[in-house]
Structures are given as C-alpha cells and as structure tokens.
Design goal:
Oligomer: single chain
Strand order of the largest sheet: 1-2-5-4-3-6-7
Order of helices and strands: EEHHEEEEEHHEEEHHEH
Helix content: 25-40%
CATH architecture of the largest domain: 2-Layer Sandwich
Strand content: 25-35%
CATH class of the largest domain: Alpha Beta
C-alpha cells in the first residue's frame, strides 16, 4: 500500500491542490496541466462534479501518479494507489493527439467513472496565440533564449512574431499541438521528433527552447 503523508497545498481560484512535499516530475506536470485547464469555467464545473480516485501510468517509463478528486480539493501523488478505481496506461506526450486512446484497467467494473475521467483528460482547447504570448512573456529572459521568434499555426494560417531584431527561430504546427507545447503539456524536442511540430533554427535553439518548455511543464515559470 502506498503512503502519502507530507503535502504542500496550492490554490487555483476555488480549487486546492495537495501534493507531496517533494513531488516527482509527473506530479508537478499533471498539476501544471490541470491548473491551466481549470481556467476554463466548463472544465472547472466538470472537475467539481467528479468524485473519486484514478491513476495514470506512463507506457514509456516507470512514472505513475494517482489523482483524487473531492469537490474543490485535488490530491496528486506519485505511484498507483490501491484506492484507484481505474488505472489508465498512456503515453503522456500523446495526450493532446486527436484520436489517441489509452488502455484502461478497471473499465468493466467502473464504466461510468471511466467515461467521466475520460472527459476530464480531454482538456479544453485554448487560444494558441494567447498561449504563445504567455510562453514568450515567461521565457524571454531565460539564458540563451533567441532574441526573436516566429510561431506559425499551420491550420489557422496565422503567424506571430515575438522579440526584437531578426527572426532567429520559427516553430510551426497545428494550433492544438502548439498550445500543448507552449503551456507545458509536452516538451518541444519530443514533439519535433514525433513530427507534431516543426522547428527552423539551430540545435542550440532547439535545446534552449526545449528546456524552456520543460520548465513550463514542471511549473518553474509563472505563466498563469
């Protein structure tokens, strides 16, 4: 049986997040994603309507986490708790992909709960342009960041430029994939390797920008 005794609490609007004192990366990442999604009123109402415990287990590495929803309180801990009604096995980097279907242990026993959790994991779409602005505002002063960057939404046929001087880097992709990367739901280099987004620039800038997206993912930057 897993034991979670020490917590740190943070608040987002009316919601209270309880994490372990020294949370592992998957816990921090899920907290970041949920906090961002809760800015959507409809999503916040959905979260309030679901009570129970479920776990997420990565299919790519040993990472796993348990999420317990109880009204306005959200507990996230590492590992798979024996209290979890269902365990969802998934590739965390593909959560934003349209049509991606993870496997679920406990589906037959808890079909309705599984359906509601599935809705929770279908995070609301955000405005990619707003996400791009927040990303730049949060990361532009990090060491070795490009002085100017262009971000292109290929499905919206829109371009945004940030910074001063000649454009050094261009990132292209569908708006949903861009939002995923810009808000910390995924990491740039993984998205590039998987073909979800493209980058025109140097390897140095790919490395620096990937580190910036990782910082977003781990909640190390203020991007509320």
């Amino acid at each position: 049986m897993l034991s979670f005794e020490s917590y740190e609490s943070t608040m987002t609007a009316d919601f209270v997040f309880k994490l372990e004192t020294d949370p592992v990366p998957i816990v921090v990442s899920l907290c970041t994603i949920l906090k961002h999604a809760l800015s959507n009123p409809a999503y916040a109402a959905l979260v309030r309507s679901v009570d129970g415990c479920f776990a997420l287990a990565s299919t790519r590495d040993p990472q796993s986490a348990t999420i317990t929803l109880d009204g306005y309180q959200i507990n996230i801990q590492h590992g798979v708790s024996d209290k979890a009604k269902i365990v969802i096995n998934l590739d965390l980097s593909r959560m934003s992909e349209k049509g991606y279907k993870p496997s679920v242990k406990g589906l037959i026993r808890h079909p309705f709960f599984t359906y509601r959790v599935g809705r929770l994991l279908n995070f609301p779409a955000t405005n990619w342009a707003d996400d791009a602005k927040r990303f730049w505002d949060s990361t532009q002063f990090l060491p070795h960041m490009p002085k100017a960057i262009k971000i292109t939404s290929t499905d919206k046929h829109q371009d945004l430029w940030f910074g001063n001087g000649l454009n050094e880097v261009e990132i292209c992709g569908k708006s949903k994939m861009l939002s995923s990367m810009l808000t910390g739901s995924s990491i740039l280099v993984e998205d590039v390797i998987a073909g979800r987004v493209q980058i025109i620039g140097s390897l140095k800038h790919l490395s620096v920008l990937s580190e910036a997206t990782l910082k977003m993912k781990l909640g190390e930057l203020d991007h509320e």
